[in-house]
Structures are given as structure tokens and as C-alpha cells.
What does this fold into?
Amino acid sequence: MSYPNELKYTKEHEWIKIEGNNATIGITKFAIEQLGDIVFLDLPKVGSSFKAGGNFGTIESVKTVSDLFMPVTCKVTEVNQSAIDSPESLSVDAYAKGWLIKVEIENVPADLLSAHEYENYVVGGN
Amino acid sequence: MSYLNKTTSHAVVLEEPLLFERSHEGAYGFGLPELDVPKINSEKYFGNYSRQKKARLPELSESEVVRHFTRLSTWNYAIDLGIYPLGSCTMKHNPRLNEEVARSADICELHPYDPIQWSQAHLQIMYELQEDLKEITGLKAVSLQPSAGAQGEFAGLLLISAYHRSKGKNRKTIITADTSHGTNPASAALAGFNIVQVQTGVDGYVTLESVQAVLNDDVAGMMLTNPNTLGLFEKNIEQIAKLLHEKDALLYIDGANMNAVLGISRPGDFGADVIHFNLHKTFTTPHGGGGPGSGPIAVSEKLVPFLPVPLIEKKNSEFVLNYNSPKSIGRVKAFYGNFGMFIRAWCYIKALGAHGLRQVSENAILNANYIKSQLKEVLNIPVKGDHLHEIIFNDLNQKENGLETSKLAKALIDYGMHPPTVYFPLCVKNALMVEPTETESIEELDRFINSVKEIIDNNDSSTIYPKRTFREKVDEAKAARELNLKFKFNE
It folds into this structure.
């Protein structure tokens, strides 16, 4: 399974692509495979603010409903409407078309994982 | 002959369109008499809300409607057809004696507005049920009002909130565990609390340390399902209760799994302050489509003043409804709760008696452990330990053969059995949660066990289950994504 090197990761299986003050956030291929067919996404409104670790939405699959956790302290600037309209697109292209939200970063916590660290974490059975 | 052919065969099952599609103009099943009162102008009373066009209701005769629903019912599955091992749901046989009693005219033709002196026998049944539930839990008082488990949780949390407010405190946090029922955090949120969840240890038990780590003066209480959703009895429960009480936080027990501990362990004895029952699980009132549910709560001394009104009490030899309880949280249900369920639960308790109830739990535990012993070689048991009334497997050692949890569950449908609970509890990856209950015979348990083994032996990656049912495997993802609940007329 691939974990692009240019991204950072969380133990809750979000990925984040940081570009200056802005970032794009989604969930990892690993998480999507664990969830199975995704049927519903609940994402925040543009303009809402979150602390790192805060719950910013839910993702529902045929198996379960999971919370989504914010990797950084930020304000939401854009929401991927096409992911909401067709959540199956996440499993096709988790790291590009399957992004969930774009944000303006206020603070980046020190504990984000590198691709290598995240891969070790999921291989470890979590 | 394979188990598959022994267990199921093809019978005639009739296709059935929607009532709207069956409708034909002029058909009816019930005629109204001529209007013998003055006709009113509804627009005068209801303005814009008055209907302008005739409602397009389906038009059918009585026999057509009866056949419609009977045909649909033949596509379904029920506890009266076979084993229903849905973990955490306690799908046990509903004794026919309960039904006989509940349907007697003396009981079911009562109106809640009937004068109290006409309803003495009914109040006596409710009073005796309260007394029995008190004894079963070792707690001080019972309210029968909540109409289901989740409403019992909600009512219990309102009591906890009222208790703290009566002391001038506004505590806002409830601790839950990852082995609790999902309704626990949901009810706490609905009752206005913030939720902190503790993770169980690798052995499946909530640890003292994890509770200690989140316990502070804002904690109103902790909700624990015991036995938990791994089928394990929380071995630290007494110390957890003590820890909570030292901070004046209360212990809520989700009693959905009471079927494992009747006559063996009493929540009041290990420090519970409030517990809800699911009469429809433990005490054989019908559920799973046959409801309604019933979720009485039992409470410790501390919470008695806040119980919902009316309280059903015995004054001398008379049964009364007491509304005079100034600190009460008020009503949580119209009238007195789901009365029909009280009759069935009362009848079940009286028929079995104390020893019989203990035997219920012992046999429920025995049945689950029989399944565990027969399937542990072929299915992985992710959390080891002394399982009680339910056993949690997962697909760890079958997944590489392409037999994941959902496939095994769907395959069981072909064998004429309801699948176990799947993908719950969430703390177990791809869980398959089997609760056979005490009312299955060893022959039926063997039928289940042999079916699982045959599915594993015959597994090939190309088979899609179920294939012998009237509707073959449905696309669950498509159904969820493109919900279509509305009939569109062909204009």
C-alpha cells in the first residue's frame, strides 16, 4: 500500500498536505480499505475553526461510522463537494481527488507522522 | 448430504409489488356509512392546510392487503423460524404463556384513564414487577416508565444530572468505555453531557488506571456495559465504583447484557447507582420487529428522590399512583410505560422463579461457551478470557482465504439462520459476535456450528452469498448512497 512521502499523517488515519499556510486534508488508503464501501460523508462548513485533534466530521461505511480528526489547528477554507456527492471516489483516489477539506493553518502540532512512521504504525497492527 | 441441503430448500415464494402498484380504482376493504352530521368547510378551520386534492391512497380489498403483507412476511426471518444469534440483542424464544396472559381481555382491554379502583390488579402486576427487578438488581427503587433501553439510559442520566444539581453542582462529563454499547455516549450527549471515552486494556477489561486518568470534579458519572460487549464481566467493577464514589460521581450500568448474570451478580452489590433493563431482551418480551421495547431503570438510595412520576406504591392493601415527589425529573413517557411488556416480563419472572432465572443465565453462558469450544479451531477469538453469554470471533485466520466477516455472515443466511452481529464492538477488528441465548437446544447449536464449518470448508472466492434467498446479495453501498423511499406515480 502506498503512503506518499510528501504527506504527513496522524494515528487516526488522516493525511495532510502542507503548502505554506494552507493544507489539504483527507483520509489514508489504509483507513478506506478498513472501512469498506463508503456511503456518507459529513464535513464541516467553510469558515469553521478547529483545534488539532478536534472532531471535524464523520465518515460512514457499510460496516461502521467513524469520526474524523483534525491534524492541525486551522480554519476550513474549502470542502470537497464532489467527495460528498460521490463518496465512492475516495477509494479510487484517496490522496488526490479524494481530498476532504482545505484549511488555513494556525498551528501544526509536533506529533504528525512521516510516511515511514505511519506505515510502521499501521503495519504494527493498529 | 451437505448441511446446506439439510437446512434449507427452495419453496414457492411469491413476488410482491408495492401497494401503490397493486392499487386498482374502486377497490376497498372497509366502507364508511353515509355522513349523518353536517358537512363542515375544512378551509374555514384549517386555511391553507386544508387538503385541496384527493389523497392518492392505494385502493385495495381486504384480501389483497392481507396477502400483500403475508407474502412480504415470507421473505423475512424470525426467532420462531430458527436460531437468531445476534450478539448483544438476546434474541430468545418468547414463551407463549406470556402472550396468553397479555392477551386476556381483563388485561388488554383496560384503558389508562380507567379509575384507579378498577385497575388494582394491573397496578399490582406493575408493583410486583418493580419489586422483582429491585431484588434482581439489589437496588432500592424501580421506575418502569422508559419505553426502551436507550430511553432508560436517557432517564438514568437525567437522574444523575438532577442528583448533582440538587447539591448545587453542574457536572458536565460522563465517562464511557469502548466496550460499551454505542447508545451510551449517544444518550449522554442527548442528556447534555460531554463524553470522555476510556480504552479497555488488551485483556478486554476497563482498568482502574484508565478511569483514574480522566476522573475529576466535573465527572457526573460513568456508564459501563456489564458484562461488556466482549462478553466479559468487568472484573474491576467494584473498585471502579469505589473510585467514582470517592469523587461523588455515579456509576451507570447498561443492563442490556443482564441475561448473563441473573441470580448470579447484582449491580447494587458492586456499587451501581442506576441500571436499565431491556425487558425485551432479558425478560422475553418480543422484539426485532415485534416490539415495542421496555427499558425500566433501577436506582440506588441517592437517586430515589428524582425518579419519574407517577410512582407506583402500595398503601396498606391498596395500590396507588403517587405524583407527589417534588424533586422528580417528571414524566419520561405518556401514562405508565409500555404496559403490555410489563405483563410479559412479570409472567416470565413468576413462571421461572429465582432458581429458574439463575438457570437462564447459566444455560445462556453454557450455550455461548459450547459454540466457543466448537469453533475456536476455525475462527479467531481476538480477546481471550472467560466469556459469558456471548462470544466474539473475527475473520483474522479466514480473511486470507477470502472469507471475511461479512461473507461468512451472509453465507449463514443460505443455511436458514440469522447472521450474528457483525463489525461490533468497534474495539475488535471485523468482529462476529455470537449470542445464542439459553433457549436454543444443543441440536440447534450444532446446526449453527456445522453450518459455519461447512461454509469455511466449501469457501471459494467466487461465490457471492446469499444465493438461495428470494433476493440475492443486495448492494448495500448503493442502497445507502441512493436512498429511494418515495413512490413516484406514473403520470
Remarks:
- The two ends of chain B are 53 Å apart (CA to CA).
- Residues 3-73 of chain B form one domain.
- The interface with chain A takes residues 406, 422-424, 426, 429, 476-477, 480-481 of chain B (CB under 8 Å).
- Chain B is about 35% helix and 10% strand.
